Amino acid sequence: MSKQKFYVVWKGNNPGVYQSWEKCQNEIKNVNGALFKSFASLEEAKKAYDEGHEEYKQKLDYKNISDGPELNSISVDAASSGNPGLMEYQGVDTNTKEILFKMGPFNNATNNIGEFLALVHGIAILEKKSDKKIIYSDSITAMSWVRKKHCQTKLKRNEKNEEVFVLVERAITWLKQNNYSVIIKKWDTKNWGEIPADFGRK
User: Fold this and answer.
1) CA 164 from chain center: how many Å?
2) 85 and 173 share one domain
3) What is the Rg, in whole angstroms, of the alpha carbon atoms belonging to the chain?
4) Is the pLDDT of residue 59 over 80?
5) What pTM was computed for the model?
């Protein structure tokens, strides 16, 4: 007897998770560009549906990373002492580790916010120079926020972190107003070691 499969419909008549192929078929029938996939467990299916098709696809792409990084690139990273706490971020030349930009420290901020700001800062610099270098980040969260053009932090805005939230607003505005061509790639820490922009505080 074959094992039951669970089906995610990201784009269909009624997006959701279905427990039979027949129900899945009904939801994708006559839908142009329907997006769906089968999974071995309900847990996997629900997780993939909640993430959304784009984020799920990105994670698949991460599994097919090349044997080594492209050295003609820039790498970005952030560090925070506490979460939230003092946060700073920077971008470096991947090959030489020359610091291209460094910002902070900022009060009462998170590492994810720093990773997001670093990525947008790096993208903006490359776009301004019409530089075709790719940009590396080791943060799936930051890459997702950039793709969605939205900073989904749960951190509350207050007097201490007003400065960093102003930067976040500027970053989001820039993303919405610019169609950038910079290629963003996930840094493969497991196989390549720490990203060159790492602050070395782990």
Assistant:
1) 19
2) yes
3) 20
4) no
5) 0.69
